[in-house]
Design a protein that fits this description.
The complex is a heterodimer of chains A (about 290) and B (about 260). Chain A is of the alpha/beta class and about 290 residues long. Helix content of chain A is about 40%, strand content about 20%. Chain A starts with 14 loop residues before the first strand and ends with a helix. Chain B is mainly alpha-helical and about 260 residues long. Chain B has 2 domains: about 110 residues, no CATH class; about 130 residues, Outer Surface Protein A, domain 3 (Alpha-Beta Complex). Chain B has a 3-stranded antiparallel sheet, with helices on both faces. A two-stranded antiparallel ribbon of chain B has the order 1-5. Classes of the chains: A alpha/beta (about 290), B mainly alpha (about 260).
Amino acid sequence: MIAAQRVSAAVPARAGLGLRGPHVAEIIATRAAVAWLEVHPENYMSEGPGLAALERIRRDYPLSLHGVGLSLGSAEGIDPAHLARLGRLVGRLEPGLVSEHLSWSVSGGIYLNDLLPLPLDEEALETVARNVETMQEALGRRILVENPSAYVRFRHSTIPEPEFLEELARRTGCGLLCDVNNVYVSCVNFGGDPQAYLDALPAAEIGEIHLAGHFRTARQGRLLLIDDHGCRVSEPVWALYEHALERFGAVPTLIEWDREIPALDVLMREAARADALMRRASEGVGRARVA
Amino acid sequence: MPGLRDLQRSFRVALLAGDAAALAPLLLEDGMSYESRLDVYRNNISGSLSAVLAETFPAVRRLVDARFFDYAAQTFIRTLPPEGPCLHGYGAAFPDFLAEFPPCRELVYLADVARLEWLLHEAAFAAEVPPLRAAALASVPAEKTPALKLRFHPSLALLEAPWPIDRIWEANRPETGSEETIDLAESGVRLEIARRAGTVALHRLDAAAFAFRSALLEGSALETAALAAFERDPGFDLASELAALFREELVTGISR
């Protein structure tokens, strides 16, 4: 087969969208003005029409593969068959970015379809570092690792999460994906300071930012935020995003929306808002340099 | 303090079996019970997997109503959770589970409708392979024809049921749902499911064509498949039935 002409793989420092089923046909037909797109590779691991449509889309858009199923935190290691499938997909789609999560989802050969929390201690750090190295070696490239939303914490966690991520990047050479909504959700759920969290991350390692909506609820009279990707990005998260841009500069920023998926133009407006904030941040940096 | 492997096993048991005895001592409780916190993960898992099943089995869901479907789905998820992250493969065992699930034993046709929906789902996800033209048969010498074997499009599947499940399915699809009454005693059906030009289609076959295509799909030689068809119908027209397989773009390869 002859590879069709494609746009460059590089994901630009602009706002992109998570590509979801209901929008695929519209994006192909209208060549919607989106700077780049991100998908979950697990949805494209059969050689069916879905993958063919994604290859069509890849001709016009840079792509990011954001894994949800590799279970980098599993003590039993990562599934070599799943990693091989991911490797084949990376070869076919030439994504500009590949990322996964600081979490686990596989235990005893059972796949728990969620991003489950790790105790933040030396054993977990060694486990994740080993799995990240296996992944990077198999794919022959650097990956980004994302901070998850948390709903429980372990008594024996000894390392603050930003420090854990920084040390993971130092040991493996991986980059980091900063999910600003997850920072906010976890900090509200456990009474942390989200700006201090961002300030503690190593700015040079941040290769991508995620923005999404969350759901507010209460349990036993206490506020609980749930990262459900089911609505617009909340105002406090936009404010935190501005702080992140001051810290990290403009980096590729994704709008994620997975439940009750709205019309494409709603997502495009969220992306436009992120783009405007990124432009302002770069201009601000430019002025600072001139001064 | 347990190692990470034991902690993850305890977490899995707490989420799937609801028993947090081993996990609880490891969790911080600051103003909110650990059960409330674990429920967030339980709801994420059961909600997302239920949604996967509801999307794959919409007619089954309409037949039993959404609340009962959720109950059956939750039981299935706890009994047979996924073994990998490619969730388009999750639900293959749901039809057999429904067949054995006591609360819906009276809906004798339900498992067969679920089997049909699973095959339609698989056909939509199957790999794309270009069809072979009938002209390819010209390269087969006459004396080799009886031993000829065919390879078929990965989406092709055949299903036989003692109820009119195609009509039950049609009447319960979200797109075409109706309130018509279907007589179960009407007739059994032999169905073919295949994707052509991007669209999954379903149609009935007669007994001879079904026997012919089933035998070929299972890897039998042309002669064996033809004999199976003649057994059902002495008037079976082999030449035109063979041509139909190519015309319908079902054949992707031949081997002698």
